[in-house]
Design goal:
By secondary structure, this protein is mainly α. The longest helix has 24 residues. It is globular, with a radius of gyration of 19 Å.
């Protein structure tokens, strides 16, 4: 039953759609994550922002490891009012990184995550305007601190939204050169070189394999992520015979072997000290193994995740599949 639910969700458009256009809504209200899902520092950082305590906000963000900082900025972009006047924070450490992340998040709130045919022209124009502002803030952040990998990884996503392929490559080079970087930057670039955007599934897989050891051990999950994306692409094929192969893709011996090899490499090292970096791996490995029917392999990663989804589980509009998987694995009584 859950497999059928998954297939229907994918074919209905669970994956991120391409950009497009057709009237603009008013500025969207905040859409904060559930209390149990939001970053531990989110409420304090939001309060400091609203009180214009710029130094305190900077201390919170800059004091976090990269993946945790990325997660906090993502939450703040959902929790803040669009057009909030926070420009004065630009002079603080990682202030421009925060401003760029907010503009990116606000842009997506204007655009929405629906298919291109559902996006109104004015909403799309506002999306582009926000991303242009984000690009400028993040570029300035990297001039101030070339080791700010959070700024570089966010810039990859911004340039992806602006559909600037050369700029995506430049942002990735900045990301790789940074000394403080989140694993998210690798997943963002892997997404850019996938068939969904400007490359192919083969290119995405090659990238994932070549960077699996770049931020050990969590980056090993890039392999699971790439294979999961291949499954999504198959499921979305307009050819019914091709789409029918999606359900068994992760069960293929060569695919499953590669995911197990990456999982074993992840487990062989101490877990990341940054829980948000660990959650990247737990989310992608648990999803891949669960969809492959490898429940014993999926269970410890799902247990580590708790009741808040991460990785490929977050691609769906609701948590029904995630919660159903937790029940099936004996991890929830709901």
């Amino acid at each position: 039953m859950l497999r059928r639910t998954f297939a229907v969700a994918v074919l209905a458009g669970a994956a991120t759609p391409a950009l497009g256009q057709t009237l603009a809504p008013p500025p969207p209200p905040p859409d904060p994550p559930r209390p149990e899902a939001r970053h531990a520092n989110a409420d304090e950082a939001l309060d400091a922002l609203q009180r214009r305590r710029w130094r305190r906000v900077s201390d919170i963000v800059a004091g976090l490891p990269p993946d945790s900082a990325s997660a906090l900025l993502d939450d703040l972009s959902d929790m803040t009012e669009v057009n909030s006047h926070f420009d004065a924070i630009a002079g603080q450490r990682m202030g421009r990184t925060l401003l760029g992340a907010l503009e990116l998040g606000w842009g997506w709130r204007f655009r929405g995550h629906g298919w291109s045919s559902q996006v109104r022209p004015n909403a799309f124009a506002e999306f582009q305007t926000r991303l242009t502002r984000a690009r400028d803030q993040l570029a300035a952040a990297l001039v101030e601190d070339a080791n700010d990998g959070v700024a570089a990884s966010t810039l990859i996503s911004v340039q992806l939204g602006l559909e600037d392929v050369d700029a995506i490559r430049t942002a990735f080079r900045s990301f790789e050169a940074a000394s403080r970087k989140p694993v998210y930057g690798y997943s963002a670039y892997a997404n850019a070189v996938s068939e969904k955007w400007f490359g192919s599934q083969q290119e995405m897989l090659i990238f994932a394999r070549s960077h699996a050891a770049s931020l050990p051990p969590a980056s090993q999950a890039l392999v699971a992520m790439a294979h999961t994306e291949s499954m999504f692409r198959l499921a979305q094929s307009e050819n019914p015979q091709v789409a029918a192969t999606a359900e068994n893709y992760l069960k293929e011996a060569r695919v499953l072997h590669e995911i197990y090899r990456a999982s074993n490499a992840f487990d062989a090292l101490p877990p990341p000290t940054d829980r948000y970096r660990a959650r990247f791996a737990w989310g992608h490995f648990s999803f891949a193994f669960y969809m492959a029917g490898e429940h014993n392999a999926a269970r410890p990663y799902m247990q580590a995740l708790g009741d808040v989804p991460a990785g490929a589980w977050t691609r769906f509009d609701d948590n029904q599949l995630f919660e159903g998987a937790r029940r099936e694995l004996g991890l929830s009584t709901l």
